Input
Amino acid sequence: MEQLIKKNNMNQKIKKVLKPFVGWIYRPIRDYIVNKKRLKKCELAVTKLVEECTKTTNKARVFYLGITEQPNLGDMAQHFCISKWLDENFPDRAILKYESSVITFEKSNFISVMKQYFKDDDYIVFQSGYCTQDLGGDHPLLHQLIIEAFPNAKILMMPQTIFFKEEKNRKKCADNHNKAANMLFLARDKDSYEMAKEMFQTPRVALFPDIVTTLIGEKQFTNYRSGVCVCTRNDGEKFYTDAEIAQLVNKLSADTRVIEKDTQGLVHYEQIRSNLSYYIWNEIESYSHFKVTITDRYHGTIFSLCAGTPVIIIKTTDHKVTTGADWFKGVYDDYVYVAKDLNDAYQQAKKIMNSSKYDNHLSPYFRSHYYDKLKDLFEDNKSK
Output
């Protein structure tokens, strides 16, 4: 036994010594393979760009950039709704869609090729979401590169949450966006709207709800309802610990059935994108089996309302979810509640479970009051 212990200790020491050397050998190989795959993806995207632009020489175009490249169903729902809105509002334009990674990769020549085909009457539309920030991802770089390359293009920035940890990054974003002579920037909550007005002097700024709200009221569900759906995130925006959420679930489970879930898709994003309508409506329908939802997901909130299900919002580490809930005040008051803490969420869930006032039918307020008017706002060069 003593010899085995000594041998194990020796193996651990050898591994510790060799680990840096293995890393030095492995990392360049890994990076080479990753970069080669990315370059191939960029080349395919550029080939697609040339083919699509060549076919649409006689048509005005919309370049929809930054489409979702991961399986989060909230982000995919934005992609679904933006695509739907573009098809409905620009039937005479060619809609060309591209991912941010094929544009931002340092070896990509996407922008230089796009410049060859881009016409004065073409539009650029950016993906909505948590993209105006310094928390990671390549959308901020996408915005920077495209605005620098096409400063006079007519650009629509779909609704954004703004959040910067570093002042230098906020200033860099402001300096770049102020080069956009014809951009309409949509902020999706009041905090972001105030920040946008302060940051941007050149772009027009408007306060607009998340585009997924256009699905609220589109379908009515008549499923039997029981129990609580607890939809929580598992990322850096999570405020409550797993143990605290588990305690809440246990308390609720003593009275009713509880199902835990997240808005993260379980299949590859390309599979979701190939049948967007099915995956988005299937996700929404899943909320229609419950009497109430408790969530810290912004799109968990919206999906629940799309299903006609009352929702209790619990806080995250930033303002996105709780300030986003302001949109529903005076519209769906009885259906949305922002909890002070998890005990408050539990008490409110019990009240809703025991109430008979909910008919689970909501009106399509946000489509009629906002997105049916967005095309005119975007194309109006006079408003500021």
In short: The chain has a mean pLDDT of 91. The first helix runs from residue 2 to 55. Residues 187 and 194 are 9 Å apart (CA to CA). The chain has two domains: 25-212+368-379, 217-363.
